[in-house]
């Protein structure tokens, strides 16, 4: 027990795992890929995974860490979000309570995963009685918004992301509504920096499908570019004001973006994170 277990939900954007898995492979004890047995999305749409992807998994898995979990995760009587929570809980059960349970999506690329693992190890005491002392660990998500000619537009202010927990009592996505411990680290989120066709596929099949004004969002997404992004505001796909401003970074590949982003400037300060963690500790102290 007390292992570093990483799980991915695998669907139509599985090719992005060729970026995501190498970022976490070395420091993980085990990696689990959850795939719908019938190749159904949470909305019941069919997708295909080419055989060469599984050949790639065999090629990269030099330490035999990767295990595939196949089951029926689409249930027509459930909403997309209910299907997502069901799949995440099934994946977490396979990963094993008593370990650090890290769940990522294919389009989430962890930066300095070793530093994150070292941070988790400093909190190993939360694994002794996880159900009684439930916590979530949140680094910061840098959301890539749109690829333009010379680089990528990204959301200026990073957002929290509950990637790890000691007890998987998921309620909405990865959110357990338990105490959050913030960590000054970054995850690059491919998010909506895709083609229009890929975006439509994403919006039609993920857990938030009923929350999005797709047409209104796509109109703004298509309009914004490297020349006008500074004059525009409110870019989030559900509540637009949550993403007030965009910023720009040069580079087209993951490595170029990682090299060119100034993470000290993008991420919150250590003092800000300390205040957030103190507030979470005090808030949940009163709930015990």
Q: How would you explain this protein's 3D organization?
A:
The chain is α/β, with parallel strands linked by helices and 288 residues long. It has one domain: Spore Coat Polysaccharide Biosynthesis Protein SpsA, Chain A, CATH 3.90.550. It has 9 helices and 11 strands. The chain has helices at residues 17-24, 51-60, 80-95, 113-121, 196-205, 214-223, 254-260, 263-266, 270-285, and strands at residues 4-10, 30-36, 66-71, 100-105, 108-110, 135-148, 151-155, 159-160, 164-165, 179-189, 246-250. Strands 1, 2, 3, 4, 5, 6, 7, 8, 9, 10 and 11 form an 11-stranded mixed sheet that branches. The radius of gyration is 19 Å and the shape is globular. The mean pLDDT is 93. This is Glycosyl transferase family 2. It comes from Flavobacterium nitrogenifigens.
């Amino acid at each position: 027990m007390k292992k570093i277990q990483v799980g991915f939900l695998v669907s139509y954007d599985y090719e992005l795992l060729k970026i995501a898995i190498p970022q976490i492979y070395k420091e993980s004890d085990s990696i689990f890929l959850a795939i719908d047995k019938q190749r159904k999305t949470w909305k019941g749409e069919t997708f295909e995974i080419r055989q060469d992807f599984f050949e790639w998994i065999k090629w990269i898995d030099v330490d035999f860490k990767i295990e595939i979990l196949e089951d029926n995760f689409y249930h027509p009587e459930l909403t997309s979000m209910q299907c997502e929570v069901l799949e995440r809980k099934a994946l977490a059960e396979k990963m094993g309570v008593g370990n650090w349970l890290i769940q990522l999506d294919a389009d989430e690329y962890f930066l300095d995963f070793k530093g994150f693992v070292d941070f988790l190890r400093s909190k190993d005491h939360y694994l002794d009685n996880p159900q009684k002392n439930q916590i979530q660990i949140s680094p910061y998500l840098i959301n890539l918004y749109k690829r333009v000619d010379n680089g990528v537009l990204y959301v200026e202010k990073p957002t929290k992301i509950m990637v790890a927990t000691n007890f998987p009592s998921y309620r909405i996505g990865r959110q357990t509504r338990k105490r959050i411990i913030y960590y000054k680290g970054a995850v690059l989120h491919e998010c909506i920096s895709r083609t229009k066709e890929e975006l439509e596929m994403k919006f039609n099949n993920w857990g938030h499908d009923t929350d999005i004004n797709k047409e209104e969002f796509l109109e703004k997404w298509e309009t914004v570019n490297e020349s006008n992004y500074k004059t525009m505001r409110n870019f989030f796909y559900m509540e637009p004001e949550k993403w007030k401003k965009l910023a720009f970074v040069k580079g087209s590949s993951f490595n170029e973006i990682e090299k060119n982003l100034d993470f000290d400037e993008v991420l919150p300060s250590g003092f800000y994170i300390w205040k957030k963690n103190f507030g979470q500790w005090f808030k949940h102290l009163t709930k015990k």
